[in-house]
Backbone:
């Protein structure tokens, strides 16, 4: 007797016989959405303290992202980013004390001032390389730090307080939850902008300069203007973070320009994963949580953080973000090279086969 399956053929029920696993890009997008959802829901749910702590994470994460644009994507190790962070804080604080409390005016002006400082610092420091570049940026940062200390009308070494936070037109930012969501939105916008930059043709050029500066110059891309451009962009992002921190704490002091803060921002990038825009934010969260927890028990918490940072460099290649990607299966297969021009790689085998066929007698 003939079976119905043999007579009618294979019946399509509309249900897949075996569920296909999610693509790596889909898993990565879901992971990012989960992190964003947690950032939206959890801090206000747990109360004011955690809301303020999450605001601090978002601000320092933004500042660390500006360092990542230099370190991870351009190969520039800088100890002067805190100077630009502090310049933005001082600019926003002075404008607020002077009566300019509209954030739509004060924050862009703080960004502009920071970018001008970055242009001046970068124009000179980027003429050096390697260790010399590190020391020159450190020297400029210390110059700005001591200049801030000399401002006696603005508190000198003690700093000064802000009478109030800035406002967004009819939206007051005195409420901690409202201010947190504003900072979170700005962080997402900065990450989106940074992602567009690094994936553009300009981003490909700066990554090429990072990998081989001489080769980039040989093919017609002079490194200096490209490095100066990304240095100024990173300075503007750091300035925005500084303006937000001035509003968050309602206090500004020269400590926001110290080289120790530059070192902490570098540590956040290394912990989270350089060359990834979400990594610095995760690194900032881990660093601040680690510091706050251990500082309750000892003031020498750096003695414990130092070995942890060394272990991260020696044992974990891609930081906290890489660990999350591997845990969720959202990372590339080990050993798979990352290509800036995958379409060229796809055509390469065909051209090779064509060349072999042409060589045959």
Residues:
């Amino acid at each position: 007797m003939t079976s119905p399956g043999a007579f009618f053929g294979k019946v399509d029920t509309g249900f897949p016989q075996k569920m296909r696993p999610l693509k790596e890009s889909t898993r990565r997008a879901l992971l990012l959405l989960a992190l964003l959802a947690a950032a939206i829901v959890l801090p206000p749910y747990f109360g004011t303290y955690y809301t303020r702590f999450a605001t601090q994470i978002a601000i320092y994460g933004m500042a660390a992202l500006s360092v990542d644009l230099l370190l991870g994507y351009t190969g520039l190790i800088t100890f002067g980013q805190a100077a630009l962070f502090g310049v933005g804080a001082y600019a926003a604080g002075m404008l607020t004390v002077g009566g300019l409390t509209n954030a739509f005016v004060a924050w862009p002006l703080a960004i502009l001032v920071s970018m001008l400082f970055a242009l001046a610092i970068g124009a000179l420091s980027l003429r050096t390389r390697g260790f010399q570049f590190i020391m020159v940026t450190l020297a400029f940062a210390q110059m700005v730090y001591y200049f801030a200390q000399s401002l006696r009308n603005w508190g000198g070494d003690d700093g000064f307080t802000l009478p109030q936070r800035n406002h967004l037109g009819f939206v007051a930012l005195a409420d901690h939850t409202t201010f947190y969501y504003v900072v979170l939105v700005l962080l997402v916008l900065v990450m989106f902008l940074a992602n567009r930059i690094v994936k553009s043709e300009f981003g490909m050029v700066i990554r090429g300069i990072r990998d081989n500066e001489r080769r980039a110059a040989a093919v017609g891309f002079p490194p200096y203007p490209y490095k100066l451009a990304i240095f100024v962009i990173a300075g503007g992002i750091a300035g925005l973070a500084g303006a937000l921190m001035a509003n968050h704490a309602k206090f500004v002091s020269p400590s926001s320009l110290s080289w120790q803060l530059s070192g902490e921002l570098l540590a956040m990038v290394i912990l989270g994963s350089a060359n990834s825009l979400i990594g610095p934010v995760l690194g900032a969260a881990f660093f601040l949580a680690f510091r706050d927890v251990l500082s309750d028990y000892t003031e020498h918490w750096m003695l414990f953080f130092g070995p942890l940072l060394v272990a991260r460099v020696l044992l974990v290649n891609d930081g906290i973000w890489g660990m999350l990607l591997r845990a969720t299966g959202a990372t590339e297969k080990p050993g798979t090279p990352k290509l800036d021009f995958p379409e060229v790689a796809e055509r390469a085998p065909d051209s090779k086969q064509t060349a072999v066929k042409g060589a045959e007698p």
Residues 51-258 form one domain. The mean pLDDT is 84. Strands lie at 160-161, 167-168, 171-172, 251-252. The two ends are 60 Å apart (CA to CA).
